[in-house]
Model the fold of this input.
Amino acid sequence: MTDIHPDQRVAVLADAQNLYHTAQSVYSRNIDYAALLSGAVDDRRLTRAIAYVIRADSPKEEAFFDALVDIGFETKIKAIKTFGDGSKKADWDVGMSLDAVTLAGHVDTVVLCTGDGDFARLCSHLRHEGVRVEAMAFEESAADELVAAVDGFTDLSEHADRFLL
Done:
């Protein structure tokens, strides 16, 4: 696979829900999305940055969505679904995967900011298409199959002071 170089076109796809839950459960802190974006781009050319977020009608979420846009992320927002039995579900796996496949012809590298093992198959597909794939996640919650499927993995836990507020 290709090495990192300054002319690489990079797309950053951030699974905000996945990152939030680990940052909260392990560190009781929030993600520094400006640092996350900077670390993902790594002095290359940013083509597109998308943060996938869930609308749960919490008081601070609009300010959070606005802050993501100010940092440089495009936000894709999905409402949380509540089922008849009271269970809730909201994830962006299919949406992130479709965006990654769509962007693959326009970028050299896709950086997935998630630890979700469901993306391992996507990584294999993107690499087969000649796209470098990197992941950024907390090692504590990063699926082994995801880590094995990417060209480069950044453990956010190793750099907690940089990537957490």
